[in-house]
Amino acid sequence: MMAEPNPLVRRYGTAAIAEAAMAIRAGRLVAIPTETVYGLAADAGDSAAVARIYAAKGRPSFNPLIVHVRDRAEAERLAVFDATAAALADAFWPGPLTLVLPLRKGAPIAALVTAGLDTVAIRVPAHRAMRALLVAADRPLAAPSANRSNGISPTRAAHVVASLGPAAELVIDDGPCAAGLESTIVAGATLLRPGPVTAEAIGRVLGRLVSGGEKPAGDTITAPGQLATHYAPAKPLRLDARWAEADEWLIGFDGVEGDDTLSATGDLTEAAARLFDALHRADASDRVRIAIAPLPATGIGEAIHDRLRRAATR
User: Fold this and answer.
1) What is the DSSP string of 144-158?
2) Closest to 225 in 3D by CA, of 140, 311, 139, 157
3) Dihedral, CA atoms, 199, 200, 201, 204, nearest 10 degrees?
4) Mapping DSSP to helix (H, G, I), strand (E, B) and coil, where does residue 5 land?
5) How far apart (Å, rounded) are the C-alpha atoms in residues 105 and 112?
């Protein structure tokens, strides 16, 4: 029998999910794909296991985590839903939408998960691997992106291994993530982080425009994904570039050709799925800087702009 190419990595399947569920119940960490990015999962009710997520990522403890659950019924055991939240859950779950809701009194969620807030960020994922793990482990899972804090988010198992190494403990490889951007985060009708579920789509469900969340003051973080510097490559990143300087790796789009491209046809959905993968390749290149072509800020382009703006902040 051939040896595993990496002792941390298991290909998705029944045996791999059973091993991952055992690891979760033992308080260990499991990196596993969702439809957005790979997440670093732990039992959301186990304070020690959640602390290991923060330690593995080097994540500040004031930055709360998203809790993944099997279905809306499980979500309602942890959080208090109003009519707005119910409408959004019905429309977009399972899927890449996170709702920030009041934490239900007595909910078995470690305080570290919510960073001591009286709200919880929660979603029902659509990816087969994460859904299978939720069923097999039989508990809610806290799962931020499976990379060092402020680094480029992982959309492949190899990205996880390169970023976290043995801190990931176990990685379930089920290929590249389809959406390629972290979930949209909404509190009430306020958009806290743009993502694959667009503001326009949310507005159609609610029958009104969705407002953008204000940038938190100082270290006052009310939900995941609000840090000003995030998703960043190690190299400086120049935005809205139509050509590359001599020392730059250019990521193209539409009519701008480069060393790599997000979408030669100007498809923003394709660009979102390829964004982090392209940034990983650029960071590993022999150039000292990265440049990226202009992209429209409409639809899912708003989420791409959000990630690029934070990636370029130093």
Assistant:
1) -BSSSTTSPPPSSHH
2) 311
3) 120
4) coil
5) 16
Predicted pLDDT at 143: 97
Where do runs of H (alpha helix) occur along the chain?
14-25, 47-57, 72-78, 83-92, 111-114, 128-137, 157-164, 199-206, 268-283, 301-312
Alpha carbons within 13 angstroms on the beta-carbon side of residue 203 total 11
Judge whether residue 218 has pLDDT over 80: no
Strand order in the sheet with 30-33: 9-11, 171-173, 30-33, 38-43, 141-142, 66-68, 119-123, 97-102, 184-187, 190-193, 211-212
Distance, in Å, from the CA atom of 9 to the CA atom of 38, rounded to the nearest integer, reads 13
Place of tokens 């480069």: 258
Per-residue CA distances from 230 to 24, 200, 202, 298, 306 (Å): 27, 24, 24, 21, 10
Q: Which residues pair with 123 in a beta bridge?
A: 68
CA distances from 132 to 16, 20, 72, 125 (A): 10, 10, 16, 10
Write the single-letter amino acid at 114: T
- Residues 105-132: pLDDT tens digits? 999 999 999 988 999 999 999 999 999 9
pLDDT, tens digit, for every residue of 89-105? 999 999 999 999 999 99
- Cα gap 223→64, rounded to integer Å: 6
Query: CA 229 to CA 114: how far, in whole Å?
Result: 20
Q: How far is CA 186 from CA 211, 224, 246, 295, in A?
A: 10, 11, 41, 24
Report the run of H or E that residue 38 belongs to, with start and end.
strand 38-43
* pLDDT at residue 2 in the model: 45
Identify whether the C-beta of residue 145 lies closer than 8 Å to the C-beta of residue 182. Answer: yes
Structure tokens at 223: 């939900």
Compute the distance between CA of residue 112 and CA of residue 65 in angstroms, rounded to an integer: 8
